[in-house]
Design goal:
By secondary structure, this protein is mostly helical. It is built from 11 helices and no strands.
């Protein structure tokens, strides 16, 4: 593993940006995974090492959303039950199979959701005064599938969760983001545990990345709470296009 200062600086910068965009939308792992591989880590070790930062930034964001009273605590358990089940299965699979399997599905889903969010926001996100729906039926299956993907590779799962929490359960974008981070916090715990057991975590870069992503997530939450939702939709679209391009060209 390389420890050259410029490479470590790239890792810290990637962590700051990833924490920021993950809090607003998702896809930050598409920055941090290549940065970890730039250190010389194999893809499976990079995937495992990345999970500590996923956990730290998500927990940091959840706590700040809760402080701002934007987290629907009553929905946490109903939303987490199917997503955690899926993430456990996905994490176990991820430690054994190539991670490119779901990438095409990821790109199609991310771009489709982001386009709807930017130009037909009522389809995938609700108004602030709209009452959320209960977690049942198709929403349970889609949340399980989101958890499966989140446990498998993590990168981009935020876009999927936002579409489910907004489109299916009718949360506005800010509250959907808060619940999304609650889900990714648990994904982080489950995924990190699996990868630790598999011996696929490099702790020095993992810790460095975790600290930088927490700083980015704090900035991201404050930005999300103050920005016009319509502008946020378009920022998310830009993030999605860039992430999809990163998947295609790497």
């Amino acid at each position: 593993m390389s420890t050259e200062p410029w490479i470590l600086a790239v890792l810290v910068l990637a962590g700051l940006i990833a924490g920021f965009v993950n809090t607003m939308a998702g896809g930050g792992s598409l920055l941090t995974l290549p940065a970890l591989m730039l250190l010389g880590l194999p893809a499976d070790i990079a995937n495992g090492t990345n999970r500590l930062s996923v956990l730290s930034q998500s927990l940091s964001g959840v706590l700040l959303f809760h402080k701002e009273e934007k987290l629907d605590r009553r929905a946490i358990v109903p939303v987490l039950a199917p997503t955690v089940s899926g993430s456990l299965v996905g994490a176990v699979v991820a430690s054994r199979v190539p991670r490119h399997i779901l990438e095409l599905m990821l790109i199609v889903t991310m771009v489709g959701v982001a386009l709807l969010m930017a130009f037909k926001p009522g389809v995938v996100t609700a108004a602030e005064d709209e009452a959320p729906r209960p977690v049942r039926g198709r929403a349970l299956l889609v949340l399980f599938a989101s958890g499966l993907y989140g446990g498998f590779i993590q990168a981009g799962v935020g876009f999927v969760l936002l579409s489910v929490l907004g489109g299916q359960l009718r949360y506005d974008l800010v509250r959907a983001n808060a619940l999304k981070l609650a889900c990714t916090t648990i994904f982080g715990i489950v995924g990190l545990t699996v990868f630790i057991i598999a011996g696929q975590v490099a702790w020095i870069p993992a810790t460095l990345l975790a600290v930088s992503t927490v700083a980015g997530s704090q900035l991201g939450v404050r930005f999300t709470l103050r920005i016009d939702p319509r502008l946020l939709h378009r920022i998310i679209l830009v993030c999605v296009v860039l992430c999809a391009a990163a998947v295609l060209i790497r």
